[in-house]
Amino acid sequence: MTEVRPLAAAPASLWERDEEVAAVVRAIDTLGVDSASSGSLLMIRGEAGFGKTALLAETRRLAEERGCTVWSARGGETLRSVPFNVVRQLLQPALMSLMPEEAREYLGDWYDIAGPALGLADPGERQADPQGVTDGLVTVVRRLSRRDWPLVLLIDDAHWADQETLRWLAAFAERLDDLSVLVVVARRPGEMTGESARLLDAVAATAARPATTLSALTPDATAGLTRATLGKHADAAFCREVWAVTAGNPYEAVELLAKVQESELEPTESAAGELRALNRSARGGGLVARLEELGIDATRFAWAAAILGTGISVDLVAKLATLGREDAVRCAELLCSARILTAPDPAAGQTGEGDLEFVHPLIATAVYNSIPPALCTAMHGIAAQVVTDSGLGAAAAARHLLQVHPDDDEELVEQLREAARDHLAVGAPDAARRCLERALLEPPQPEVHAHVLFELGCATLLTAPARTIDHLQTALAMPGLEGDARVDAVFRLSQALLHNDQLEEAVRTVEAEAARHRAGPARMRLQAVQYMWEGIYAGEATSPGRSERLAELARTCTGRDNSERALLMLRGFDAMTHGESAEEVVDLCDRALVNGRLAPGLGWTDTEWGVELLLMLANAYAYTDRLDRADALYSEALRAYESAGWSGGHLALAHAYVGVGHRRRGRLREAEMSLREALRLAERVGRGLPLYWTATCNLVDTLLARGHVEEAWAIAEQHGFAPPYPSTIVLPDPRSVRGRLLLAVGRTKDGINELEAAEKAAAVRGHHNPVLVPWAFDLARALATEDPGRAARLATDVRRHAERLGTDTAIGEALRCAAALETGQRAVRLAAQAVAYLEASPCQYEHAAARVEYGILARSVAELNRGLALARSCGADGLVAQARAVLETGRGLR
User: Residues in domain Orc1-like AAA ATPase (predicted)?
Assistant: First the structure.
């Protein structure tokens, strides 16, 4: 019989792993060809003991033999609640080799964002954005990978990795096409559920080849391993029994054969019957019995080590197990001799504060599960104190506090609240949520209970708005939240309702709370929030006479505090959407600023009011031709979010509105770039949200302006730019943009229907700013042939609204529309007037379009060339082609 042997010089646990090792060799060799080569990911799946760790160790050996830099880390069964645990193991060694000032210089702006998550820097005062931290960690590895190429990352026991690490790993794996890094991930099948399972599946999906699934050893391979360990004289019956009692599990086979050697058992058929008893002693209850044989001190030491899970130093274990230093050292030696604990392998690159680790996760699990439940709980409580006393902080102690039984402990509640704040500060809201949920079980004292619920609601606001609603509604129904804290809680609740697509309930919530307050700053703030949510509602106004009441309230405001400034911004935005005088709109907005800038407490990263209010201010400027101020605010938002590391929805919105600024100015290429980035970021946050609609709508609008109709249609189809529309308003009006798109692709009837729906929706809301809701321009042109009378009435109405608004852009566009419906010299005169207004407008695309149209109507080569030059500078390829086509024919031109 032919024995299946491992590769030469490979350890015993690599028997029958030739194909897997060969795949690793190919990946390493490919990595080393060129520093510009694409990275790759290998996923190794296998049951406990099937040799995943051994295969990673062989990967390390092969990689280092070929001159690669290797970093490694592993998950831990009791450490899954510790945020960034695995990624810290992976990256800290490389970063710790740098001096603090070197690390700061090397990571640049990302140091303050990713540094706290990695334990390299103190967290800032604000709650960190989880997506920003993830992006920061991706950037850290990107920069280090260029320095340390060729780089191999090994992650063992990924099924026990913390969720924050898995989020980083999923994001990093998506970027491997432009990173020359090899990532090898080992995991057990199953073991994970929920978000962690989804993230690990996303990691696996990026692999260049299907996951390698390790199988049990065959009888032949087990026989080969047995004879390689015990000698060629081991007979066939003995070898078959080794395979039978271990079921071909490589780890169990290696451990069993070690026991055979220790017991000096002869590998003969007559001794085969003793193998089952030996195997039981190496696992489960047998391991526990063997541990007890080492004595009570050694048992307590092993238990304490299992409680700690990581950072297993003799000194910490001694404190937890209440052992003297000498006794602790002796116990450590006993447990190492018994192959229960071992010193970390320096060659494995694993670093930490510990002197010891368990020989195998199976042993760690067996020891932990052997601790009597009541004692296990008590030891976690002691461990929390030991960790805190060691100066590691509340966050490090939190995983132990989560295991302690509820007992009306006020101090424990405060420790968990502090740990939650620490977790939020480094971008780990899920870890914060676990701490606060556990604090509620204690339970908190009555005067504290509502505050804990409020903090829990804030921690889950961005990740679970429905859960946030429950927490905050419960908190507000309890005593304890008073004054500003209560107003803050109501505002957060209204935000959660907004994010959960319950905008009308958000309005009613703040309206009811405002009625409870007397006149003053708190009531004014709540009224402003009510008007803010009503202002972005896309349906019918939720309270009759809203605009009149808002105008009356704002009339008394001088901008002396942020509540008054907010009301001025809201009134300015409301007036802009209704198409009131642009001069009055700008005056209202200017009065909301302090020396032309946002007031303290009203910045883009301040949380008292939210981003919606500031976007209303910026958009009020944008759609009244004050693009200088709009651009300044959009750019300020982008800088603020980038420097704060906010890479989620806030950054997506900032890029989208920077794109809006470019689009309004006619910088169409720049607009397209910003909006594509906005859409990429919005995809990560989730489809269907207002920010997703904003990015998609404006990208479609920009592509249509560029003349890229097919691409605009493809974007609309790919990203669901079609009814039903969101409950919040999107700027510009998505129905108007989709109607223009349908006309452009030749679906005239559908386009007219969509534009008529836009007309009805605008009438319901009283939105008569023709630049913000531009349905009338396109509908008039579409109806010019089949219903010229209605088209003329629409053109007259839109001109009336444009003159009421009074901006050069609105009036110029209205004149363009009127010219398109006329013929002869009247059309020429109207087109000339449109050019005159749009030349004074900051919107250069519209100016270019008016020039080209005037040149065609006037048959003027000079005007066409002017329009052509403007169209080129804007990136309006469709206008360029139109102007060129007329110039090339030359018929009737002068």
Answer: 16-184
